[in-house]
Design goal:
Blueprint lengths: L15 E5 L2 E4 L4 E4 L2 H4 L8 H11 L12 H13 L4 E5 L2 H18 L6 E5 L8 H7 L2 H4 L9 E4 L4 H7 L4 E6 L2 E2 L5 E2 L2 H14 L2 E5 L23 E4 L10 E5 L20 H14 L4 H22 L4 E7 L2 E6 L3 H10 L2 E2 L1 E3 L3 E4 L7 H19 L3
Parallel strand pairs: 3-15, 5-6, 5-7, 7-10, 10-11
Antiparallel strand pairs: 1-2, 2-3, 4-12, 8-9, 11-12, 13-14, 14-17, 16-17
Bound molecules: pyridoxal-5'-phosphate.
The site of pyridoxal-5'-phosphate has 15 residues, from helix 4.
């Protein structure tokens, strides 16, 4: 018999009832160290007092009004994003998938308004942009699209890291290039700064719009507010979600005035996007992340975690391969099935996330403490030691 919840997830037999910072508790009081943070969602940890305050204060005033009216919290959050990024304008969504939908629509509308037949969007193997029909077509993997055809047309997947293929495909009839600066689900694969700079130049030469998917790698995760800032280039359109809501469902599409030119009244909308509750939390997240001390602390924590992981790779070469990633978006290429590492980590009361390419992902809250990093490293050491006994 089909379960009451549609069985699209293979869930671990774990259920949490409380959270605080980097910790989660099960009903029986067992405490787990959360190095997954809801897959890069709980950027400020669980139950951050300032976010609880922002949410409950707004909840006591007003939950929902239609986008037919001005929403002050939305205005406030949009201004914070515009003031702190390349963007001139923002549309709020409820998820990364919805941000993908709008990014694709916006790019195509841009060319349609210009009267040009440019609809093709270049994407990359190993990408993950969400689960809607457009997002699975963009990623294009057999695993995601099988059985869900007909697949939305107009996406061409290129090999990750193949600069020649990209140059050949990026002709002047391409509408846009859509890429994650760091592939998350694909296995923490980092696009080198020089490649992102070259891609920006190629887009400028052909006029193609550059769409960055920073749903997972954005919002402070790499030690700058957005990952592309390390390369010193800016996109035309950017997808955001996950960390921006700190655990409350919220996403956004950020764009330049030029890229957004086609999106006039009536061309797009959302019932809940930019809802007062979500934006109250999102604005508070942005305020905290733009405090002077926030990103330097993320970089310090990232250095500490990375150094510890390199040490684990050196001491457990049978279990761990290389360390990948940037900031607090780190992965360890596993020499045993990554899923087994995740299972063993449960036994150490440690939450990690598997990724493609047999990688174990670590995406802790960005405000994780040094002691918590040390505890995570100790637990990973114990995971590797336990597995060494059976390998
Ligand atoms: C890079 C990236 N884009 C898009 C998405 C889709 O986001 P959501 O699950 O919020 O729809 C994800 C989710 O994991 C992601 O990692």
């Amino acid at each position: 018999m089909i379960p009451a919840i549609l069985p699209t997830y293979n869930r671990a037999p774990l259920s949490f009832v409380n959270g605080e910072g980097a910790w989660l508790w099960t009903e029986d009081g067992t405490r787990y160290l959360d190095m997954g943070a809801g897959i890069a969602v709980n950027a400020l940890g669980h139950a951050h007092p300032a976010l609880v305050e922002a949410l409950t204060e707004q909840a006591g005033k007003l939950w929902h009004v239609s986008n037919l009216y001005d929403i002050p919290n939305q205005q406030r959050l949009a201004q914070l994003l515009v003031d702190n990024t390349f963007a001139d304008t923002v549309f709020f969504t409820n998820s990364g998938t919805e941000s993908c939908e709008l990014a694709v629509k916006m790019a195509r509308k841009y060319w349609s308004e210009k009267g040009e037949d440019r609809t093709t969007i270049l994407t990359f193997e190993g990408a993950f942009h969400g689960r809607s029909s457009a997002a699975i077509a963009a990623a294009g993997s057999e695993k995601m699209i099988k059985g869900f055809g007909p697949v939305l047309q107009g996406f061409v997947q290129l090999r990750w890291g193949d600069a020649d293929a990209l140059r050949a495909a990026l002709t002047d009839d391409v509408a846009a290039v859509l890429i994650e600066p760091i592939q998350g689900e694909g296995g923490i694969r980092v696009m080198p700064d020089a490649d992102l700079q070259a891609l920006r130049e190629m887009c400028d030469e052909t006029g193609a719009l550059l769409i960055l998917d920073e749903v997972q790698c954005g919002m402070g995760r790499t030690g700058l507010l957005f990952a592309h800032e390390w390369a010193g280039v800016t996109p035309d359109i950017m997808m955001v979600a996950k960390g921006i809501g700190g655990g409350f469902p919220l996403g956004a599409v950020l764009a330049t005035e030029n890229a957004a030119a086609g999106m006039t009244a009536g061309t797009h909308g959302s019932t809940y996007g930019g809802n007062p509750l979500a934006c109250a939390v999102g604005a508070r997240v942005m305020e905290l992340m733009t405090e002077d001390s926030f990103l330097p602390r993320v970089n310090a924590a990232a250095g500490r975690l990375r150094q510890g992981l390199e040490g684990l790779v050196a001491s457990h070469p049978q279990i761990f391969g290389e360390v990948r990633g940037a900031g607090l978006m780190l992965g360890i290429k596993a020499r045993v099935p990554a899923a087994e590492l995740v299972q063993q980590a449960y036994a150490q009361h440690l939450l990690t996330v598997p990724a493609g390419d047999n990688v174990l992902r670590l995406l802790p809250p960005l405000n994780i403490t040094d002691d918590e990093i040390a505890a995570a490293l100790d637990r990973l050491d114990a995971v590797a030691t336990a597995l060494e006994r059976v390998v």
